[in-house]
Hints:
Protein name: Phosphate transport regulator
CATH superfamily: Phosphate transport system protein phou homolog 2, domain 2
Strand content: under 5%
Organism: Frigoriflavimonas asaccharolytica
Number of helices: 7
Family: Belongs to the UPF0111 family.
InterPro entries: PhoU-like_sf, Put_Phosphate_transp_reg, UPF0111_domain
Radius of gyration: 19 Å
Number of domains: 1
Amino acid sequence: MAVGNIFKMFQPKDKVFFVLFEQVADTLVNMSKTFHEGIQEFDQNDETFLQKMSDFEHQNDESTHKIYVELGQNFITPFDREDISLLASGLDDIADYIYASTKYIYLYKSPETAAYAEFSLLIYKACLEIQIAIKNLNGFKNTAAVKEACIKINSIENIADDVLSQALVKLFETGDAINIIKVKSVFEYLEIVTDKAEDVANTMENIIIKYS
């Protein structure tokens, strides 16, 4: 048996979940940062940006799958199995909807708007707070920091609601029916990302309440 496998046998089994959750959070930060930068330099004729988002989404899927595999193999978990599943699913949804937003921007050949950049910045900020929360959730070493990050995520979601409302008003004023349908759809996908981030924050807050 390889030395690495022997070492793994004696590692606390519940620790692997935090390692995987941190991997997912790191991927979301990198994905959202690249998304924000790509929106600002968007070129509908260059699909490199779309491919990058697809790669991040697949990377996140792999980490999420590993979490479910570990959940099926390990009896000892750091918190309720249902909460682990809920947190993994919520994080995966964020990546899925970031990718979906990018895909529909390309499919609809939707012209870049200032609101896209506003949304992408909010999404990036939300992912940064998720990263902070998950790192401090590890071993419940700093529950106050987790709560603070969750509060910030909720605030970001509220701001995103306002951005959506204002963007829709400006969009409808254009009177371009076809473009309205396309852009409105993208706006809704972008706003869903922040909704999913809030769902993740709520899940982490519930975990803290149970174990604090």
